Amino acid sequence: MRILEPLNPPLRDWRGVRVWLVGASTGIGAALARTLAARGARLALSARDEERLVALAADCPGSLALPMDVTRGVAEFARVRDPVLAAWGGIDVVILNAGTYQPMRAWELEPDAVRSTLAVNLLGVIDGATSVVPTLLAQGRGAIAIVGSVAAYHGLPQAAAYGPSKAALVNFAESLYLDLAPRGVAVHLVSPGFVATRLTAQNRFAMPALIQPEDAAAEIVAGFARGDFETHFPRRFTSIMKLLRILPYGLSFPLVRRATGA
């Protein structure tokens, strides 16, 4: 066992790589689409916001704009997947980036809002993977990338729904990797810290190590190039969050309260 070897085949040359990017219309997704287009990838772009999606596709010459709603289940993914396969004859990389965020403290929990968060952040990813795994296995190659969050590492104030939805993705990605990597399909977990998007703009606290979507896109591409299983960034912040996972709660809870002002 060589623990320093890449867990996935490094992907450095994106020219001609067929990428289906779900959750592409804004934020990290839009920045990643532009970054991959500049590197020569062939893109199928999906999101709920058709107007933004069409505008983004215009910035990424040759890309396919395929609006969809991930909360509609596997059938919705299949509705978009089949034209992509018909156009390309296969898919090399699927990036499941669709996500939502509503700040929510424990005393603000609303069942409908919690279910809406889980439907996008968790079930939307599981349905997406379900729809493409058979194709990737039949090809004997390809990659799935799941965009999670640093909020998965430890409970945080305002993240009573968002945090659990992202924490579940870590376990799901690990399970996928163990099953799929031996059969030639790479699995990548992306764990961003705070990125300046319309979703994080809702936060009512100072966000440490805040970065721009373009920086996040560059980090994700670098993670593919290294063959990482997990790509987390910015490391000056995410490394501290990872440390919280292994500290006794008697230490981690006070540190989180102090850092967030909760």
UniProtKB/TrEMBL annotation:
Record keywords: Oxidoreductase
The UniProt entry, under PANTHER family, shows: DEHYDROGENASE/REDUCTASE SDR FAMILY MEMBER 7B (PTHR44196), DEHYDROGENASE_REDUCTASE SDR FAMILY MEMBER 7B (PTHR44196:SF1)
Q: Does the keyword Membrane apply?
A: no
What is the name attached to this protein's record?
SDR family NAD(P)-dependent oxidoreductase
Please indicate if the UniProt record lists Oxidoreductase as a keyword. yes
Give the domain of life: Bacteria
What the entry lists under InterPro entries is as follows:
NAD(P)-bd_dom_sf, SDR_fam
